[in-house]
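Researcher: Next sequence.
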Amino acid sequence: MNYNFLYKQFFLLLLVIFNGTLLNAQSSANDAAAIRATIALFFEGFHERNEAKMKSVLDDQTVFHSMDERGEVTQLRAISIEQFLKAVVSRPDNPRWEERLHEFTIEVDGSIAQAWVSYSFWLGGSFSHCGIDAFTLYKKDQTWVISYLIDSRKTEDCDY
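Model: Next structure:
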C-alpha cells in the first residue's frame, strides 16, 4: 500500500475543509462588522437628530416596538417609523439624549441577521434607564438594513 499517496490525499482533504471553514469565518466576521457599522450609523443619526442618516439604514417598512418594564405593569408599545423619526428629530437640544451601546451579540444566517445590543440611556448627563436593543436586519443589495427593532427599558439591574 502506498502510504505516501494516502497521506497526500488526507492532507489535501484537510486543506480543503480548513480553507472552507476559514472563508466562512471571514465572511461571518465581515458581516458582523458591517452590521455593527449599520447600527452605529443609525445611532450616529439618532444623536445628531439626522433623519436622513437614520433612514439610510432603515427599511421602508421597519417596525419599532418598546417593552417598558419601569412601572408596575410591563407595557409593549408600537411606534411607526414616522413617529419615531419625528420624536428624535424634533426633540429639544436640552436635555441631551445619549444612548451608550455596550455589548453586541450578532448572529448571521445568509441574508438575515439578529443583533442583541445592551445599552444605557442618559438624559442630560444623568442615567435614565438601560436595556437591550434587539435588531433584525436583512441584506438588501449587499447592504445590511434594519427591518425590526424592539428595545427593553428598565431601571433595575443596570450595571452601566
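Model: The CA atoms of residues 42 and 54 lie 5 Å apart. Residues 3-153 form a domain with the Nuclear Transport Factor 2; Chain: A, fold (CATH 3.10.450.50).
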